[in-house]
């Protein structure tokens, strides 16, 4: 089951399949497609897993083992790669909140997000090679963009798992929180990113011309939200300071 919740412009998409450690089956792919369509208009999107054991443990082998032809395997890979592409191209910032281990296809889902936030006790592994296959959902290319080609080949070629601290060191994860404060941590980051200008910042980071970047800035400059915020700042800086010692 995939659950989509909204709060103050933030959409939270949770993969909730405890019996399969949040592994992805064909039905899950369809539910993810529907959830991403329904999340349109959100100012930020979080994708996470239910519980604290797994973010996504990969593809659901018990169900996907029914695919025995090259055509069926290619169709499945193409469909889930499309889901990851939709995550990567979502107009607003996308945060992968790694509540648990991200393994195989789960690591591919994680790197499709713009930002990865992890609990300090999780592990990440592109371990498809242990099944004599390879990442097929766009994860190999996205991993290389994050950590470089040589590290990507080493990680995906050996299937080595890295812990959250090492993942942060090599640029695979952006922020690590202690398990006790993980939920509070990712929600705080998501709330800060669920602001109108951030989608424009993402668009510019992903590559536009200088003229387009300036046009984005100009649109924001003349918007009411900018002048309301500017007015608050100017009022703060011009307000009289209290007398020494707090006397009135």
Give the SSE string.
EEHEEHHEEHEEHHEHEHHHH
The count of strands amounts to 10
Summing up helix and strand content along with how strands pair, one would put the structural category as alpha/beta
SS strand fraction? 15-25%
What fraction, in percent, of the residue positions are helical? 40-55%
- Give the strand line-up of the largest sheet: 1-2-3-5-7-10
Shape field: globular
Rg (CA only): 21 Å
Distance between the ends: 59 Å
Largest sheet: 6 strands, mixed
The low-pLDDT segments are none
Task: Count every helix, treating DSSP H or I runs of 4 or more residues as helices.
Answer: 11
Mean model confidence by pLDDT? 94
Keywords: Fatty acid metabolism, Lipid metabolism
GO biological process, one term: fatty acid beta-oxidation
Function: Could possibly oxidize fatty acids using specific components.
Family: Belongs to the enoyl-CoA hydratase/isomerase family.
Fill in the keyword field for this structure.
alpha/beta, enoyl-CoA hydratase activity, Enoyl-CoA_hydra/iso, lipid metabolism, 4-stranded mixed sheet, 248 residues, 11 helices, single chain, 6-stranded mixed sheet, globular
Written account of the structure:
The protein is α/β, with parallel strands linked by helices. The chain is 48% helix and 17% strand. It has 11 helices and 10 strands. The chain has helices at 26-38, 61-64, 70-88, 105-112, 139-147, 149-158, 164-169, 182-193, 196-205, 210-222, 224-238; strands at 2-7, 10-15, 44-49, 54-56, 94-98, 101-103, 115-119, 123-125, 161-163, 175-177. The strands form 2 sheets. A 6-stranded mixed beta sheet has the order 1-2-3-5-7-10, sandwiched between helices. It has a 4-stranded mixed beta sheet with strand order 4-6-8-9. Helix 1 (26-38) links the parallel strand 2 and strand 3 (44-49). The protein is globular, with a radius of gyration of 21 Å. The protein starts with a strand and ends in a 10-residue tail after the last helix.
């Amino acid at each position: 089951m995939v659950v989509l919740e909204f709060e103050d412009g933030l959409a939270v998409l949770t993969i909730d399949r405890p019996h399969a450690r949040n592994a992805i089956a064909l039905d899950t792919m369809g539910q993810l497609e529907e959830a991403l369509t329904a999340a349109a208009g959100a100012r930020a999107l979080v994708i996470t897993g239910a519980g604290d054991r797994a973010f996504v443990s990969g593809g659901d082998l018990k169900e996907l083992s029914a695919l025995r032809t090259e055509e069926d395997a290619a169709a499945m890979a193409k469909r889930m790669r499309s889901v990851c592409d939709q995550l990567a191209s979502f107009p607003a910032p996308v945060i992968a909140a790694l509540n648990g281990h991200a393994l195989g296809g789960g690591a591919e889902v994680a790197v499709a997000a713009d930002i990865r936030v992890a609990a300090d006790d999780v592990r990440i592994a592109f371990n498809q090679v242990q099944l004599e296959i390879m990442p097929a959902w766009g994860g190999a290319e996205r991993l290389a963009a994050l950590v470089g080609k040589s590290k990507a080949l080493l990680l995906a070629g050996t299937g080595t798992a890295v812990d959250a601290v090492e993942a942060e060191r090599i640029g695979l994860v952006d922020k690590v929180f202690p398990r006790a404060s993980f939920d509070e941590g990712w929600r705080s980051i998501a709330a800060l990113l669920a602001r109108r200008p951030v989608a424009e910042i993402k668009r510019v980071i992903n590559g536009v011309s200088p003229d387009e970047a300036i046009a984005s800035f100009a649109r924001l400059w003349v918007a009411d939200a900018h002048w309301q915020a500017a007015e608050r700042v100017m009022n703060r800086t011009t307000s009289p300071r209290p007398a020494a010692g707090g006397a009135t």
